[in-house]
Amino acid sequence: MKFTKMLAIITALMMVLSLVAACGGGDETTTTAAPTNDGETTADEGETTEPAPDAEPVEILHWYWADTPEYSETFQEMVADFNSKNPDIKVVAEEQPWDGGGYGNTLLTTVMGGGGPDTSAWKLTWTPAFAENDKLLALDDMIAGWDKKDEILENLYEVMKVVPDGKTYVMPWNWQVLYVYYRPSMFEEAEVEVPTTYEDFLAACETLTRDTDGDGQVDVYGFGMRGAKGGQEPWGSFIHATGGDFMTMDSPEAIAGMQDFIDLYKNGFTPPTAPADGFNEIINNFKSGLTAMTVHHIGSSVGMVETFGDDVDAFPFPGSKGQWTSMGDTENVIFAETEHPEESFRWLAYLAAEEGQETWCQTTGNVPVSKTVQELPFFQDNKFMSVSIKGAPYAGILPVLDTTTPWINDLWPATVQRALAGEISAEEAMQTLQEGMHS
């Protein structure tokens, strides 16, 4: 009986203390403010916006890769900056090895096993495998309500939609855009203007192919063609310039672009080694003065300037009936099993259109996806960045299909090399490529 009375007294005392605690600080009103898209919080007039002193921030685990120690250090500084400006969120960023692209497989295995992060750095080609297994969060509604959604080029949102359901699962972050490198001194010697049309470009390839020392042998070729693996990206600009596309590669327009590609080699306007030339070869040929033009992105610009100083410049690959250039992509995603989707989106928004966008692109030299950041002097005053930005509105990628990887690695180089060797016609080559991609 004494025990029962004592228990009743303790229970009553605890109820009183709870009421006192709940009513404490009656001169202040504390609310939970609605998150906004700039990492701030809003509340009605007269209400505080600071979280309760004892409130724990929401923790977001983010995975990323970094190509250099400097990039890694910069990314961690960005995380600290975001956390300081968003006290209700704590991003914890874990660096994972790129492992030659094995990062994507590691991520898929981890997520399918029920683990993994809330958010992650991303490549578009990974999207179908994750989306088909309901492992990605669709971002359409959050993007629609984002006050900075118009900061991103509209065509980028379209490029991001690589899954047949038409939903957007990836948030743009940064990219690289292919363009044409050229030697101004060679253009001046050959009296060639910088091409502004596709027809001008083809003519320049011919005019710039020259015997400069009078020994009867060509020692400078107009265009550094990449016929080996990876060459499908600059090749795609030829297909689109004549009005073709990757969906119907056996169309007359696409075949015409293929014929132009073949003719550059057949007519001797590219090095004889072009069918077997990959990245290293086209860059070395350009740096050695063997070619007057070649196609790559801003990642090669530092080495070009080290070699040539001011005697290297760039222009967008020009179009005619159409225009396209290849884009190298890096995005971010939110995984479907996160318990904090809104906070995760605020973190991705910081990377896409806030301080994280500017900091990362300045450090890495990648092209910003934010229009405002693109207009900053740091980017506009860099001629290679400026050309990249000019090509951004019509940049894209190959279709992301189950067939794409073997098409890139095996079918494209084998088929194009046969076409360059004259073993098959442009029409036969494009029929093979069409069937291999879309069968």
If you had to describe this structure to a student in words, what would you say it looks like?
This protein is α/β, with parallel strands linked by helices and 439 residues long. The termini are far apart. The protein has 2 domains: 58-177 and 327-389, D-Maltodextrin-Binding Protein, domain 2 (3-Layer(aba) Sandwich); 179-316 and 401-438, 3-Layer(aba) Sandwich (D-Maltodextrin-Binding Protein, domain 2), CATH 3.40.190.10. Strands 3, 4, 5, 6, 10, 11 and 12 form a 7-stranded mixed beta sheet that branches. It has a 3-stranded antiparallel beta sheet with strand order 8-7-9. It is built from 19 helices and 12 strands. 45% of the residues lie in helices and 13% in strands. Helix 2 runs antiparallel to helix 14, helix 13 (341-353) crosses helix 14 (355-364) and helix 18 runs antiparallel to helix 19. The protein has helices at 2-23, 69-85, 102-112, 127-132, 140-144, 154-160, 184-189, 198-207, 232-241, 252-266, 279-287, 301-308, 341-353, 355-364, 371-374, 377-380, 383-391, 404-420, 426-438, and strands at residues 34-35, 41-42, 58-64, 89-95, 119-122, 170-177, 179-182, 293-296, 313-315, 325-334, 367-368, 395-396.
